[in-house]
Specification:
By secondary structure, the chain is mainly alpha-helical. It has 2 domains: 102 residues, no CATH class; 74 residues, no CATH class. The chain is 57% helix and 0% strand. Helix 1 packs across helix 3 and helix 4 crosses helix 5. The longest helix is centred in the N-terminal third of the chain and has 30 residues.
């Protein structure tokens, strides 16, 4: 448990340190002489100082570390840094470098509430049709499957006419004649497979 706490605390410390480093980097760039900046950075820095109504670099002459500046000049630098951070956050300015992702808000990612997604209702009719198609396809090539299919379909048939009608339907579906029993009595008796008789 202490190790987990140390890990989480260390991770949090890295994020805070990285954020402070990002702000420190922005302050350093704002106080860098304009001649030392790249063209794109130079325009951004000039725009920020114009936006807050302050002279370039907050009126600083030679460069000094932020910590050694007078409090009024530190406040001016912080105001400029806050302005550039707001511009980066709103997309008015681009952040560059490895710390730039720390300055932009993360996109909204909705988190599911834990409710499982609604199950797609089963289509029992479709499943039955697919099973019937598969049984017919199998019966077209296998005499035992053909006999079993006819036996299943005629299990409740009481008349020879009903049996013959169902048998004719299977013949129409492409099941060979010699794969099917000829009569209801032959099916009920459980005679050997028609293919073995042929």
């Amino acid at each position: 448990m202490a190790l987990d706490t140390a890990r989480h605390g260390c991770s949090r410390w890295r994020v805070v340190t990285s954020s402070r480093l990002a702000v420190r980097t922005v302050i350093d760039e704002l106080s860098t002489p304009v001649s030392a900046l790249r063209t794109a950075s130079r325009h951004s820095v000039q725009r920020i100082w114009t936006t807050i109504g302050q002279p370039l670099r907050g009126g600083m002459g030679p460069w000094y570390p932020y910590e050694t500046l007078a409090w009024e000049r530190q406040q001016t630098m912080l105001e400029a840094a806050a302005t550039i951070l707001r511009h980066i956050e709103t997309g008015e300015a681009d952040g560059h470098g490895t710390l730039a992702p720390l300055l932009t808000p993360k996109p909204y990612r909705p988190v599911p509430d834990g409710t499982p997604p609604a199950a797609t209702p089963r289509n029992y009719w479709q499943e039955a049709m697919e099973a019937a198609d598969m049984a017919i396809t199998l019966a077209q090539d296998d005499p035992d499957a053909a006999r079993q299919l006819l036996t299943t379909l005629t299990a409740l048939s009481r008349t020879e006419a009903t049996f013959q009608r169902i048998r004719d339907d299977l013949l129409t579906l492409g099941i060979p004649d010699n794969y099917l029993p000829q009569t209801l009595a032959e099916t009920a008796a459980g005679s050997p497979s028609p293919a073995t008789r042929a």
